[in-house]
Predict the 3D structure of the following.
Amino acid sequence: MNLPFGFTLEANFNGLGLLFWGLFLVTTLFTIYNNRGKTNSGTSVKYQLWFIISLRTVSIFSLLLLAFNPEVKLTRSYSAPKRIAVLVDQSRSMGKAWEGNTVELNRSIEGMISNLSGSHSIDVWNMDGNAIESYEFEFDGDISILSWEPGTENSNSEGVDYSSVILISDGHINGGRSPLDESWTATLPIYPFMPLAPKSNQSLKMLRSGYEYSKSSRESILVDLEIQQSGLMGRLAIVQIGTENNPVLIERKLPLRSSITPLEIPLSIVELDRNKLKLSVSLENGELMSESYLNVESEDPKKSVLIVSERVNQLHKFLIRSFSDSLFQVHTRLGTTDEKHRTSLDTLIGKVDLTILNSPGSKVFTPDLMNVMRDQRNDNLPVILFQGAGEPLDALLSETLNLRITDNLNSPEEVTAYWAEDALDHPFYLGLLGREYKPVELTRFAPLKRGPGISCLHGAEMLASGSPGTRQPVMTLVDKPPLAIFGGSGYWRWFFHPQSKESFEQLWEYLLVYLNEISDFEPVKIEIPLAASTTGSPIQATINIKDLDHRRIHAAELRTWQENSKGQKVALDLNREGTGEYTSWINTVSPGDFSVIAEAYRFGELWGRDTSRISLMSFNGEDQSRGVDEHFLSRLASRSGGEIIAVNDDLPMFPVELVEKQSSSAFKGLRSVLLFGLLLASLMIEWILRRRNGLL
């Protein structure tokens, strides 16, 4: 049913409409008929009786509605003007993008909003979709993200129609999806408003910085930079690397030929007075300077070797000469040295890469040496033990290295050695054969004097002597922690005798390589390309899982997470690249020092664990953005059908567009408080009128 003023009434009686209207008609006629004689009274009473009949009709109608319980809907159709949305960017870069301070910026924005609200209905929003009630704007946001959308929940504007959007921004949208990719920016006109005269949009900034160690020398690093420029094509930039005490260690001139220019600068770290580097880029005249900092972790490139001998003998001399290479730093400890003149080993604790024990006795095996040995075992670093015949074996050393003495037989006769059965399929023996080694040449000469048979519970015999009944181990290898044990005397002859010299030198060199590889062997290895970088940089870690033969293997389960200095953990997603090789993207959102940890499980047990570290320094595009990106704002306005409004321009004549809207209300009979109240009111008024007129 159409009613005046755009109202429409609809009622659904669920098929009982005729019955409803029939009952209403019958009861209404009965009411009129029943009161017809009473209407012959005076004029005043007559009007009151007709009013009572009307009240009874309303009561009957209400009662029938309550009984039939129809769905009644009252709809109003009307036209309303579309509104204008004003979006205000409150990021930090807004405060330095204009020729004026924040007070003048606020005054200009408030004036525009005041003028616009005089002729249009407006809503003021933040760029992230929050309504703004107070127009005292604070430009302190960490990032610019335009996530507002018309008619969506994130803008709290559902059901509101907008004819235009006025955008107040410097155009540096440095987070989220680009507004040019949003569908609504192609259909809703956008008018970027310049509240003040914009500063130049020329910018020069250090987009990313990091470093990695040089592959040729651990004493130098490659500093990896990315320089970003805008409006400076063809200009010359100056890149400087220094420290607090030495501001300029190295300087490079960089022609700006593209928007982003990568740069690698080699830098020696030997003479760095601090681990923190200061990086800066600017134009030749010093303008548009951008700075960043890097923390460099120092590493000692030399291998530290400790040779422990009870006395100077032929073996001790050979060992000294075998490590004369510049890559090794050799330290010695002799039992014959007076304790007053003996160098303390405190400086070596935690730094010894290899320890060689040449028949160490009670005089040389002191508490500080014991501390070095324990630390070396805990750090999975290699040890080589030569234990001669007749030499006492320290009980503390035996316990630390998990050794056992199988035979105390000392024999003056010289015996030959042979390769044991355990060696034939051992990686060490197979590695020798792979180097075209001839193992028989070592066993042709018999320099050994038999002594105590020393072995390790978890070791594999490489060389042995004697018959099955009197068999003793000559050389035993243990992979974890790495340990090589030589039992007996006369090894120095192997080093010098013409028949065995070359053969033993090959074995010795490969033994050092093998023990080093075993000590460096990591079943799980995380590699991060940069030790330090800036927040927001895309950094991918690589995780490899290997077996004892350095072959990549599958892990039944691999877990990877990132942990900050407070112990808070964030799980990282893994992508499988191949057998035993995985990649994971580092979380670079927040600055700080982080540990990236991976654990691999095989057969229900922990196979290996590795930890790598990365330092992230703050990089915020808001602090680097300069001026106004008029090019971006112009593209956004052109794409949407709007135009840029300059600070001194009059506001355009925004058309007043009407949109058809509807509002409705519905109620059901027995559930309607309105109908029930109407019934009670009509009956009560009738009773009062009848009582006052003496009709009761």
Notes: The longest helix spans residues 43-68. The chain has 13 helices and 35 strands. Residues 152-158 have pLDDT under 50 and may be disordered.
